[in-house]
């Protein structure tokens, strides 16, 4: 599928779907726990359903028939040997989480996914799981999927590079279900909001994790997760695309149901827009946010260590700002479905964007964008970010791989078009 996008102006009020990362954590913890769990507002995205199917293969019973509330009957902290390959689809979070969960099983499992998953680096997690008593290897001896995993993992001490929290969060979740518990030493941990989110959901399921200034994490063994009831907050990460669209066009959009106390680092989006000179107002103790375009934005420096998924949208925002906008601490953005820093830079260059790139930073210069043909890279965040860029560009933009928005924002098209975006769907020709 493709999006055909022209210059747009947005008006209206919208509610953003549930947080993708929180949904992933709720699904695995509800699936692991003893007893029933009820989780409202789970994101009905492709990644969520991939994780649901893997947890079902490990023995969990999960009812997703009611979109308002998913119901879980967990495995009682004892996942079963799966009768099939555990297929993560396109879910990187699911891939790493399930690899760790499979390490708890006294038996063998195979974890794999689509072509993007099969090139995402997993060697640090593989090494850590082996340190902790499991036997894990890459079938291609490349540190990538498919992975063959044999447990049970007993616990102990290991270390991880801090560039990617998706290697740490799985260990924190499974560590309490090991016999001996685990200690993880982190080297300059980035993406701390995601780790805070993981620890928050562990606590909600009755687990314990402690840390020493995010440098060393301790998880006592012999714990038992219990069923819980919770609601998934609106996804600040998804909100960034219509927020940026509103800030860079002649628009006014109000977002309701937001949680200013959410763990997500992307809750910084409206504050970044405001810091750049955009008009942003907060009501209802920050649960309602209005972003209005028309102001002259100024380039700033933005630390992306806690918001690597925001790099594509922030690059678009930087193209609108006067002067230059520097995004730094962006290493983790290079380890996602694509190297998102390189991907968004290359696609926006096609539209007339101007950039300087280093391994750790992306400098974006004020640019007059023009419509063109965009490769969505099979990456939902590249598709959505370039769709937003097209809303301020001169002329028509055609964006391939539009169906990938279903990974994190399945009603992106409906939300944007309802607010007046000049966006159409079509088939690839």
Key traits:
globular, UDP-n-acetylglucosamine1-carboxyvinyl-transferase, Chain, alpha/beta, four-stranded mixed sheet, 2 domains, single chain, 429 residues
What oligomeric state do these chains adopt? single chain
CATH structural fold name of the largest domain: UDP-n-acetylglucosamine1-carboxyvinyl-transferase, Chain
Distance between the termini: 9 Å
Q: Provide the gyration radius in Å.
A: 21 Å
Count of separate DSSP helical elements: 12
Shape: globular
The proportion of residues forming helix, as a percent range, comes to 25-40%
Please, how many domains? 2
Write down the CATH class of the largest domain: Alpha Beta
Task: Please give the CATH architecture of the largest domain.
Answer: Alpha-beta prism
Structural class: alpha/beta
Major β-sheet profile:
4 strands, mixed
Question: Could you report the average pLDDT, rounded to the nearest whole number?
Answer: 97
Q: What's the CATH H-level homologous superfamily of the largest domain?
A: Enolpyruvate transferase domain
* Unreliable residue stretches: none
Would you count the extended β strands for me? 24
Read across the widest sheet, the strand sequence of neighbours is 22-23-1-24
Instruction: Please report which band the strand proportion falls in: under 5%, 5-15%, 15-25%, 25-35%, 35-45% or over 45%.
Output: 15-25%
Q: What's this entry about, in short?
A:
With 429 residues, the chain is an alpha/beta fold. The protein is 30% helix and 24% strand. The chain has two domains: 2-17 and 234-426, Enolpyruvate transferase domain (UDP-n-acetylglucosamine1-carboxyvinyl-transferase, Chain), CATH 3.65.10.10; 20-231, Enolpyruvate transferase domain (UDP-n-acetylglucosamine1-carboxyvinyl-transferase, Chain), CATH 3.65.10.
């Amino acid at each position: 599928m493709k999006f055909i996008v022209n210059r747009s102006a947005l008006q209206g009020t919208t509610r953003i779907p549930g947080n993708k990362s929180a949904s992933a954590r709720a699904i695995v913890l509800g699936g692991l726990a003893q007893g029933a769990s009820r989780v409202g507002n789970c994101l009905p995205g492709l990644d969520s359903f991939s994780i649901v199917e893997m947890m079902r293969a490990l023995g969990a019973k999960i009812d997703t028939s009611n979109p308002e509330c998913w119901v879980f009957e967990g495995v009682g902290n004892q996942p079963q040997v799966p009768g099939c390959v555990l297929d993560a689809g396109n879910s990187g979070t699911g891939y790493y989480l399930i690899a760790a969960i499979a390490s708890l099983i006294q038996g063998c499992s195979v974890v794999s996914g689509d072509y993007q998953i099969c090139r995402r680096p997993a060697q640090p997690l593989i090494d850590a799981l082996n340190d902790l008593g499991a036997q894990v290897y890459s079938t291609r001896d490349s540190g990538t999927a498919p992975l063959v995993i044999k447990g049970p993992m007993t616990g102990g001490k290991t270390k991880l590079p801090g560039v990617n929290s998706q290697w740490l969060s799985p260990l924190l979740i499974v560590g309490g279900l090991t016999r001996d518990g685990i200690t993880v030493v982190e080297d300059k941990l980035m993406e701390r909001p995601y780790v805070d989110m993981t620890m928050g959901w562990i606590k909600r399921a009755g687990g314990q994790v402690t840390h020493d200034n995010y440098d060393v994490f301790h998880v006592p063994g012999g714990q038992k997760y219990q069923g819980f009831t919770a609601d998934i907050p609106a996804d600040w990460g998804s909100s960034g695309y219509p927020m940026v669209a509103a800030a860079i066009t002649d628009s006014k959009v109000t977002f309701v149901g937001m949680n200013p106390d959410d763990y997500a680092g992307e809750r910084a989006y409206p504050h970044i827009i405001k810091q750049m000179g955009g008009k942003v107002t907060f009501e209802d103790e920050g649960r309602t946010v209005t972003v209005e375009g028309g102001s002259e934005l100024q380039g700033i420096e933005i630390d992306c260590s806690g918001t690597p998924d925001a790099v594509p949208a922030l690059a678009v925002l930087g193209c609108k700002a006067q002067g230059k906008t520097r995004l730094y601490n962006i290493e983790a953005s290079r380890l996602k479905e694509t190297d998102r820093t390189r991907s968004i830079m290359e696609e926006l260059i096609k539209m007339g964007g101007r950039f300087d790139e280093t391994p750790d930073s992306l400098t974006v210069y004020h640019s007059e964008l023009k419509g063109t043909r965009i490769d969505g890279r099979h990456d939902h965040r590249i598709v959505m970010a370039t769709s937003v860029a097209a809303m301020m560009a001169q002329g028509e933009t055609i964006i391939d791989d539009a169906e990938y928005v279903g990974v994190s924002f399945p009603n992106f098209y409906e939300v944007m078009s309802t607010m007046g975006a000049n966006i159409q769907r079509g088939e690839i020709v």
